[in-house]
Amino acid sequence: MAAIVNPPKDLKKPRGKKCFFVKFFGTEDHAWIKVEQLKPYHPHKEEMIKINKGKRFQQAVDAVEEFLRKTKGKDQASSHNSTEEKNRRNSSEERGKQSAGEEKRKASLSEGKVKKGTGEGKKRVSSVSSERGSKSPLKRAQDQSPRKRGRPPKDEKPAKDSDPHFHHFLLSQTEKPAVCYQAITKKLKVCEEETGSTSIQAADSTAVNGSITPTDKKIGFLGLGLMGSGIVSNLLKMGHTVTVWNRTAEKCDLFIQEGARLGRTPAEVVSTCDITFACVSDPKAAKDLVLGPSGVLQGIRPGKCYVDMSTVDADTVTELAQVIVSRGGRFLEAPVSGNQQLSNDGMLVILAAGDRGLYEDCSSCFQAMGKTSFFLGEVGNAAKMMLIVNMVQGSFMATIAEGLTLAQVTGQSQQTLLDILNQGQLASIFLDQKCQNILQGNFKPDFYLKYIQKDLRLAIALGDSVNHPTPMAAAANEVYKRAKALDQSDNDMSAVYRAYIH
């Protein structure tokens, strides 16, 4: 939900179709949005509320309604103030009349005390008579008001709906809550620690703090799964030139309609684009994409850039980096933390490592697809960090499922358990959404169960490689393996719940 506002003077309007600069309710973000993506608020309100059940959307509705209430309150206050002002004017006139009458009475009494024929007495009476017969200054001002020229009185403001600068819009449910327009002053903050290692803090390239001016580089994207589809959609919305390829070509059709170009092979996409991103399912798919027939490696030549956003192990990503660089290419790993909804909303967290110059070149792309990005140093670091993040998430999901089933078998209300958790320190969007999935029996994939199990397996292997125990992840992994055996692989990770009830 958004309202049209005036853009800052130094922000140029995107080329192409007509668009408006809008402020999003709920997030306080701003973006250029095409005219055809906007709908009037009131006529489409009920329809969109039925379609969108998420908390984020409801918060936006609440923000709009609160804004409208405040605006209405101001109008009423203004009307009330105008009425009070009118009453004050009438009261002032009445006091003026009373004062004039009192003056006349005093003058008459005084006149009886002075000698007849004195000019002073006559002058007083004449003065009073003149004042009584003329209009007060306030009355004259009212008669000279704009009413005589056909204009509405000042206290009668036009209705808000007729004001061309006051429009509320409902955006499509996949619309990115886009970026604020403050300029980015610095992309990276580098801190030298006492150990001599370099840690790169979160880049100021977030959807909340950055302004997206799309790069003029040609962007390629390989892989249109749950994550890739949302990423490409946001790249296009923010004005990037994108060429897409997917193993199942039909998935490209929607993005072609949105303005993307079609690449026939990964090699063709890489050879025709400046920066090519890829997001596929696992290490094998990542290697096949680069090393297979008509693969990425065949399109790499000096200066070409390849960014692998897949969640894989450090050994795989290091091998891919070596072969890309050996052909004169530039390489960056950039796996993403999030799910399908966060991908659609452009709110992913991006973990990058490798070519830092390429990381900076990807700035506008990362802004379009994520809320923040981290640069973690040399190739392999992002893969390791991503596996650790997903290990924690996967283990937590298994624990949630275990707790809900234990509540059920001991005669406790699962809904009450969720309500208690939501009021405590564990409260989070993740907890609430996954528990709701279980309570409603809705396991439509937002993050495939088979992929979280793959990440747990890789995280355990990472622990083995450095002789570090991972007993919690190992236990969770066994539960996910059980769920896979029950044909839950293509359901959401929350379907791990079913491993406890069979």
TrEMBL record:
Gene3D superfamilies: 2.30.30.140, N-(1-d-carboxylethyl)-l-norvaline Dehydrogenase, domain 2, NAD(P)-binding Rossmann-like Domain
Record-annotated 3-hydroxyisobutyrate dehydrogenase-like NAD-binding domain positions: 380-500
Keyword terms: Chromosome
UniProt feature coiled coil, ranges: none
Family annotation (SUPFAM superfamilies): 6-phosphogluconate dehydrogenase C-terminal domain-like (SSF48179), NAD(P)-binding Rossmann-fold domains (SSF51735), Tudor/PWWP/MBT (SSF63748)
Stretches the record annotates as Disordered: 70-165
Pfam family, one: PWWP
Name this polypeptide is given: Cytokine-like nuclear factor N-PAC
Species of origin: Willisornis vidua (Xingu scale-backed antbird)
